[in-house]
């Protein structure tokens, strides 16, 4: 980390959340906070263990 305000430090998280929204969230209705939490946990497992990078 190179310090406050450096956009390069934030790019990995911006990329992750962009992919999460694109691959999991867009176009699907969610009905509860618990459902969203379970789907995000499932996606994180998929992202780190099964997704081809």
UniProtKB/TrEMBL annotation:
Q: Which Pfam families match?
A: rve_2
- Give the source's domain of life in one word: Bacteria
Q: Which GO terms describe its biological process?
A: DNA integration
- What protein name is recorded for this chain? Integrase catalytic domain-containing protein
Read off the InterPro entries from this record.
Integrase_cat-core (IPR001584), RNaseH-like_sf (IPR012337)
Residue ranges of the Integrase catalytic domain?
Answer: 14-53
Which chain regions cross the lipid bilayer?
A: none
